């Protein structure tokens, strides 16, 4: 009997789509023998068919109507590589309802609509694949779902946004201010068109919520259930403080259990230089998993870019072909602990670094210390630094272990007082 040729359709032929197309086209014989199945690159939908592409593709293979891909009965696998949430969700559900396999790199749509997408996939045969949505080329989804299936995870954390890691790496290395390096990152095409996704931590939050779901079976909404902050407020004073204290500042996504409560968060954090994650630089990502059976594992690789992301998408296409040839389902099985709830701020404990811009006058330090004392926060280290503006001073301090609620109240009280000129800037300290 002649071997079936599976047809692959694409919605989106931008950075990632072209990478996937290029590798599947250039290495077809090698890929087919590794996949154990034959495929054809059938169709690609884009916004503008007249735009120049860096791949070999015919006019007949291109369309501007995504339903030419989704509703084509001959197409077995739909790669959703367009991004966004509204249209991407609509097309994903339409393809899944027809029993097609869908491969996606779209962390935004999964973080927001994962529950609906996975339920639809399961109802119609369970063929949804999303390896490229988190940490680019690192196969972290497979690691969590398969390789480390024996484990419960007390803490998962890591660097999940390549753009922010690039900016922080260069700020630290070159002692250069945030704005100058962001401008370079823009020129290099690293920063997303919607800059807030990278710089305010939302992209890392989408990825962290996906990891938290896989590990704990609960969907954390970045807006409602997570603490999310980005890298915009970081100054060279903070970088220098970290360096002097054998540490480094990284934008960290974290899902940490405190008993039955789960804290899912993204924020810049101070990591000791002895932590492997603190030494992952440039656009690289790293994910550290603390499993109860395996112990600690750390996974490092390129977190963004055409080829790294294409590698993950192609791995999903290989898995999709396996489900299509065997008839097996790829339905997600995640374990949900019924007692687990999202941590309230007073349940999240840790040590903190704060930078305050205060009045340089008699009694200011004592007044500031009393704000912390009234919240039961004990100060560990305190350093005053010269400010460029007369009458102002920088105060850099760290706390002994306290909780997020106490820090929040102390910051609000300081901001409302006449002691400070700006919102206190806070970093979490990882030990
Ligand atoms: P991109 O370069 O902006 O490409 C998007 C593609 O989708 C383009 O080909 C665009 O068409 C097409 N498109 C957008 N809206 C469309 C619509 N309404 N109808 C038809 N086509 C439409 O994006 P990308 O960087 O490849 O990212 C794709 C996905 O992968 C996103 O979900 C992103 O978050 C994710 N991802 C990206 C990376 C990365 O490093 N770039 C890494 C991991 C995950 P035109 O070309 O005609 O404009
Ligand atoms: N903007 C993302 C990053 C792309 O910089 O990590 C990869 O998901």
Summary?
The protein has 431 residues and is of the alpha/beta class. The chain contains 14 helices and 18 strands.
Taking the sheet with the most strands, its summary is: 12 strands, mixed
How large is the count of helical segments? 14
**How many E strands?**
18
Small-molecule binders here are: NADP nicotinamide-adenine-dinucleotide phosphate, L-homoserine
State mean pLDDT (0 to 100 scale).
96
Principal-axes geometry comes out as elongated
- Helix fraction? 25-40%
> What is the terminal-to-terminal distance?
61 Å
Strand content: 25-35%
Low-pLDDT sequence parts: none
What's the alpha carbon Rg, rounded to whole Å?
24 Å
Class computed from helices, strands and strand pairing = alpha/beta
Task: Describe the fold and architecture.
With 431 residues, the chain is of the alpha/beta class. It is 37% helix and 26% strand. It is built from 14 helices and 18 strands. The strands form two sheets. Strands 7, 8, 9, 10, 11, 12, 13, 14, 15, 16, 17 and 18 form a twelve-stranded mixed beta sheet that branches. It has a six-stranded parallel beta sheet with strand order 3-2-1-4-5-6, sandwiched between helices. Helix 13 (364-374) runs antiparallel to helix 14 (404-416). The longest helix is centred in the last third of the chain and has 21 residues, at 306-326. NADP nicotinamide-adenine-dinucleotide phosphate (NAP) binds next to helix 1.
Write the layout of secondary structure elements.
Layout: E1 5-11, H1 15-26, H2 28-35, E2 38-45, E3 62-63, H3 67-70, E4 75-80, H4 86-97, E5 101-104, H5 107-123, E6 128-129, H6 140-147, E7 153-159, H7 162-174, H8 178-187, H9 195-199, H10 202-216, E8 227-228, H11 236-244, E9 247-258, E10 261-272, E11 284-291, E12 295-302, H12 306-326, E13 341-342, E14 349-359, H13 364-374, E15 379-386, E16 392-399, E17 402-403, H14 404-416, E18 425-429
Helix pairs in contact: 1-12, 4-5, 5-10, 7-8, 13-14
Bound molecules: NADP nicotinamide-adenine-dinucleotide phosphate and L-homoserine.
